[in-house]
Amino acid sequence: YRVNHSCATIFSALLVTRRARGMALGKLDAIPAFGPLVTVAEVLPHRDSVKFVDASWHLPSPGGTRRDARAEFRDSRISNARFFDIDRVADTSSDLPHMLPSEAQFAEACSELGIERDDTVVLYTTAGSFSAPRVWWTFKCFGHEKVHVLDGGLKAWAALGGLVEAGEEEPSARRRRPYTGARLEPNLVADSRQMLQASRQGETCQEEVQGKTSSPSTAVILDARPLARFLGEAPEPRPVVGRGHIPGARSLPIGALLVEDDVTTFKSAAETREIFQKAGVARDSVVLTTCGSGVTAALLVFALHNAWPDREQPIAAVYDGSWAEWGANKDLPVEK
User: Fold this and answer.
1) Which of 48, 68, 128, 248 is least crowded, fewest Cβ atoms below 10 Å from its Cβ?
2) Which residues of 3-23 are buried (b: 16+ CB within 10 A; e: fewer)?
């Protein structure tokens, strides 16, 4: 039989309503269980159901200038993305850079960004920025399970036709959401006392495990800084900090885990496992990571988790103060 125009209009309206209800219930656009690292191809079909967050942050250049990540966010971003500022969402009472925020600070930041605890969050960065894993680790520290890093960042998204926008954000376009249940996971954060203990244990058995896979009971300290800084041959970017590394630590610069000339793209899980194994890390090793200020240390933790998502040990711990704290403390031992 034939359906007249008004009936067709009513039918269409009912169909849209049913689809909207299905979307609300997660029936028509169920988000799959992404791994820690997601590709554009994986996330693009679900772009309307995830919360994109620009996690870009930049180190100062040798000349002292520094790229403005927030300005770059205004110039170009994934459509409907939010911006997470690791220098602002931090323990600003500390003299150390971008230390982990409190539970209340983190929850308030997420609420402002319109993020709820059950949301699927996809983090990305602009070209040249390696800070997405730091924000991934921050979310993990407060118990947010569904948080992922977009491989290739904004450049990969745009290359595959993902929607990109520019201009000032409209505050009214994003409704504030209550973020509840933020609870710090203390086993994901290490302090100088724990690092000192691990350092002493590592020195005791350094000759036994050098070049071999460590036993799960022996903590491995991995340092993500460039090798020259690890060896004390190059100066630190912070003038008050001395040269060298934590005794017993092993050097694993982040460049080893990333595609050459692209700090937003990771090597395959198989390649990553091989790199960790050469550094003496097994699937279930206890791992503590450090770097200059806790940013690239989180990248090591992320890469470890991506390489062995089924590992029995919990996610490795980041020494949040890192060399900015250790290298400035004359009472702590240093090796070169």
Assistant:
1) 48
2) eeeeeeeeeeeeeeeeeeeee
